[in-house]
Amino acid sequence: MQVYTELLPPTAVTHALCLPFTSKKAQNLIVVKTSLLQIYKVKHLPHVPEPTTNGVNGHASDTQSTAENAPRPRSKLVLIGEYVLSGTVTSIAGIKAMNTKSGGHALLISVKDAKISLVEWDPEIYSISTLSIHYYEGDDLQGAPWAPDLAQCTSYLTVDPSSRCAALKFGQRHLAILPFRQPGDDLAMGEYDPDQDSAGPNKVDGEPKKETPYASSFVLPLTALDSTLIHPVDLAFLYEYREPTLGVLASPQEPALSLIQQRKDVLTYTVFTLDIEQRARTPLLSVSGLPSDLFKLLPLPLPVGGTLLVGGNEVIHIDQSGKTTAIAVNEFARECSSFSMVDQSDLRLKLEHCTVEQIDKVTGELLFILDNGDLAMLSFKLDGRSVNSLFLHRVPAEQTSAINSGSLTCAVNLGDDLLFLGSEDCDALLISCERAHGAQQAKKRSHAEMLGLEDEEEDEDIDDEDDLYGGDAVITKAVTSVSQVPGAMSEITFRIQDSLINLSPQGTPTFLPSSIGQRASENMSPGIDIVVATGTDNAGALSFITKGIKPNISRTLELDNASDVWALRMKSATSPQCDNVLIVTHTSADGIESSSIHSTNSEGISERTGTDFEGGSATLNASVLGGGTRLVQITHSEVRCYDTDFGLAQIFPMVDEETDEERKIVASSFCDPYILLIKDDHTSMVLKLDRKGELDEVEGSNAFKSSEWVSGCMHQQIEAQHPLIYLLNAKGTMNVYQLPDLSRLVYITDLRNLPSNLTENGVAKRLGSEQAPLVEIMICDLGYSNEKSTYMIVRSEDDELAVFEPYHYPASPKSQMFTNDLRWRKVSAVQPSSLPDTRPDEPVSEPKRPLLRYVANCGGRSVAVVQKKPVTMIFRESTSTVRSIQLEDPETQALTSINAEMCSDGVLTVTSSGLINVSKLNPGTDYGTTGWAVRRVSLKENIESVCFHAESSAFVVATSSKTNFFLPEDDWHPEWAEENIAFRPQVERGALKLVDPISHTVIQEMIFDADESILSMRIIDLEISERTQERKPMIVVGTAKIQGEDYGCGGSIYVFDIMQVVPDPEHPERNKSLKMIAKEDLRGPVTALSEIGDQGLLIAAQGQKIMVRGLKEDNTLLPVAFLDVQTMTEPYVLRVFGKSRSHMEVLTAEFLPQEKQLFILVADDASNIHVLEFNPEDPKSLSGQRLLHRSTFHTGHHPTSMLLLPSNTPPNATQPATDIDNDSDEPATLTSTPTSSILLTTASGALALLTPLDESTYRRLVALQTHLSTILEHPCGLNPRAFRAVESEGFGGRGILDGLILKRWRELSSQKKIEACKRVGEEVDVVRAWLKEIEGVLKTGIQLTASTISHSSTTTQLNQKPTTTKNNPQSYTIPIMCCSPTTRALKAQRKTERYNRKIERYNRRHGFYDDSTNIVPATNVVLVQSPAIEARENVRDVTGPPSYHAVMEAGRDTSVGMMGDEGYGGFVAVRLAKEEYAAYKESKAVDEAGGAGGQLVRSEKS
Asked: pTM above 0.70?
């Protein structure tokens, strides 16, 4: 009973495409990140410098673009929408479909298991709309029984360039053809103009026909096209054919490099023309004998045409007549193929996994991005329409220095000399290709010119002399212009314009205490940073991921009882560009409020006295008007206006003109020169500052004055001349007025139900009395200064936020009024705080203050702030949707920005203790992309593993780099020494680095041998002394030594310690050094390491063995036990405890204890999570020999690691309970058992959490998930239940819940939320608490221990805490871990029952039992291997089968705490009295760890 929740969305870009999607003239970038679909537009911006964020979210390019005066404006990616798909996308393609709602193209999306979704953009709802979904996963299409499954085959999509059909290759050799209707199908080609024919063939009486844009699809095997297409490599539709024409690269034999001499040049390129109506094909040409390493087929448009075939060692071009032109790019091409090629082996290029994209549509030049990030250009030498030769050359490194890319998955030409590069290993980049002026003039003739030239050559009749000279002149011109291309291309410079952050692939995470390197608040709860290795090669980095914001506190202002603060900029000659005024509201312990005004300087602040500033009242809001000439202070009873010397200029009291009754201000909003006021009688007032600096009331209509307003704000669009006033009344209706005319209502809509889309004059269809009323509204611009977007934030009475984004339908020009055709769509729903508001209670007569605040400049960006403990900040990056993130300090209750001499681009935070902290957001941290604080430290190397050494407070990082491979010296192979190749293979070379956690500098680096790489690293608590049994955390490293395929792979185990040394005075952080303690060479690679037991031993997987070792005092490693098939040693035993029935390729595994059950989570190579249970009491387990398969869940992402996270707090918070028998003053509480969760890292960048649930919560969430799956609209028509379901042996088991579906409950309208809660029988607040539980376990922080930080084991430490019993007020629980007995001990097992009775009598006689339970169980007992315990009289005898190390709660209601029957056993908690515990410590009667000695010897005391 678990729930799977994605904490971070996937970030690795797998597919990308450019097409006009949202409109006919748009150029949209479609990006797919495994199962996340994102739609972007490219926005060209004037060159405006932005804050540098060190490579996060594209702002890294600002530093470079500022230094280099780019001649063209910068470009930026702007997210339009993102959609989570219930499927793993395998391919995307654009299609020109008929009658789309937007007028643009439609999008084809293929997912695993042979499904195709056809989607379009619906401008009415400003979202995607699914047109159809096509399934081809029937059993009748799978071929022979021995054929591989769909999941094991690669499927990809290709579309005809004229959008006449699409083809999906799926399975082993199946092809699905999906035809599309086009205008030319019914009318003569070229005679139909849809713009001139208003009632064309697709219309009836002027109305569109109700027909689908596609026709019936059909499936055929590739062998139906040609019997030799048995092993397809790639296929694609070709350009310049009147009918859909398909090019196929395939072979009758499976290409294999291991059989290169027998299967050399077995590939064949075949071209077929398809007749869609007749379902027939016509072969056009076939080219055989192609190299076996070809892997990509790339159709080329004009002016080049034909097809480009790319292999690992060569590039081949084939034109429409079958003429081939090829070049070899390295010296291995001639050894792997006999195909005729031009030798360019001096390039030494590796084209495996390269990405190719056309960079120039005029010349047809192609850009090759290699697997290591290098760039190469391919140009063509044309003779008319024929390709004479190919020229491939590297792009100089100085022209690509800004691009730090690695292996790419896709490249897209966006036009305007822009390229998008997607990757799974590094950030996706938007780059510009800037040419020099001379290179621009050297471009080839255009497509139209080439066609015109061909017409002239075909139609004109010229004589032989004209042929001889005129024709040659034309050819020479063409050849000359192309030959200039290589020189011209050297003038191209690539610059980064924007980027998408990527956190993949992720390694095993470690933890860093949040207090390290930070000055935290005294009241800050202990938290953690998740530190995970991300990226590969040059993009390798350490990523620090935190759920909360941790500003760097520079100073604390000592002010009494501060509760709110404003930093303002008054007009001043000394500091014209700085905030020079600070207004503070104070709230005493008895609730008395006051205000103070201060001046800022480089040293801090100084209070201004002797002014007319009103300090006896609380300041509700403050701002400057009139260009900084007037300071406006708003209190409950009046509006006060001050001049630049803080002299009182005007007082505007809140008095009813008709009744002379004093009113109080409850809300206000500023928009120079206007002020909007909302009073406690729900009336509004607008004041305007005139040129004389005086405030006057703006006259409005009776409706404006008399309506019952509860909230309001003012906002002015950039293009507008006057601001708009947005007012929310008590009924939940929003009215909009435009200043200065308040007599005319320009827009109205109903917000009560908070639906997904809002329209003008829209009224909620269904309303219920249970929904919380709306109390606050704010319209603001979020984002950076050069790219902001307008959003509306609505807050309900229960503090739930709904964020809406405006759009116009039909689309209106910017010159029109903003409210014309205005609509809103909900983009986010936020529950800002889970902590109660502990601010001083306001009197009943005092209305509650607004919680929403707009901060115009917070570290260079505009954000919205929810001022409730802890403060929540709402961010919006241009490449992401709206995200919310809380401050880590739970006592922070107010926040504002400050840009003063003492702190530039900083923030002021007010804590509940009345302190004001001056701090800054980390400029290298990204907040808005994922909703988590992400900070990356680049190491520019591939990071294999990372651990945090708590004792020395340092990171230990295992890295690898590529180095050339040389064959070893061997007397039996003297020819190896004569090997002479320039293009050498490369292998990984390991290195161990010590990194400072504060400065992130490398303190020390230890480089291993050239053929040795690090496979595993852990920090393990090893026993370093056999006499004192002292233990110390050591760095244990497992390596592999690779010397070629003719040698066996060896390995070593290293043990390092971190010593304190005298540092360099200039580098005080270098006071640590790695010291090698022990090393042992092995015959196999060491692939895994872990701590086992509690005796300071380590267990290692080496080759085919699992070995347990201990560190001796002479710094050697002593083997104590091993497992090799069924071989055992004495007296230590390792035995298989239980096995699963199904066979799978395990990527990672972890234990998950839940109550008194032990689950094992296993992730396989198919992205599935299997839940296995070890339960010897279940008859199906065969006494524990069989692991019970409980459920299987498909994640869609390849898990790279699992980590058990202990939780400090119960899953359900402590709740007060009524206890009539409770005589104490403290209230009774209901607490549940603390639960642990599993943190999953993935190869796609997604970070997930798997949380156990109790029975009651699980049942209700199952009902909620079922209900949501029925009522929600799923993008692309994909079924989430089918996506997560996996056929397994766990029939009838309880499945894992999908947290993505459960979190979509927030997308519902208010009424639908209530209806969904009624279906599960719970209140809305309870469901909110559940959602916070399944996605916010890390918010509370984890108490870090040495074991938790170092990850030496996924188990928690054994806690020997004194417990209180009835007869003995202070006793101790000592867990003893046991395993299967040896042959000698098996004889003693027959005496177990007799000795158990003796132990029971002994325990009862000494008061070891109380009235309620037999024995106090030991918690967090680790199941490990230990020696047998011989049964002797007066000695507690424990026997039972062995187990792997795990965390489990021991102690069931049996006589001596034994768990299970005779076939199980092995766990017992022996409780000793206080004096016996002391004797135990002296005589060592009981081995505390149980892993090495493990025997209970005779002791008089025990």
From this structure: yes
